[in-house]
Design goal:
mainly alpha
Length: about 70
């Protein structure tokens, strides 16, 4: 488990990376969150590194289209 500061950082990175993604796009947001968490679990807690990983994950994430 992460400490409160790291958890806040991860949440902020997720929100920034997914700012253009609807909150209802749960599959895309979940995919991005999963990749960010995996990176942090492996020791990468730099803001820039996590944002890069999040953006890459977002480009690969399933997005529903109407």
């Amino acid at each position: 488990m992460f400490d409160a500061q790291t958890t806040a950082l991860l949440r902020a990175v997720l929100d920034e990376v997914c700012e253009a993604v609807s909150r209802y796009e749960t599959s895309a947001r979940t995919h991005v969150a999963s990749m960010i968490l995996e990176a942090a679990s492996n020791g990468d807690t730099s803001v820039d590194g996590l944002k890069q990983i999040g953006r890459r994950a977002l480009s690969e994430a399933p997005i529903l289209r109407n």
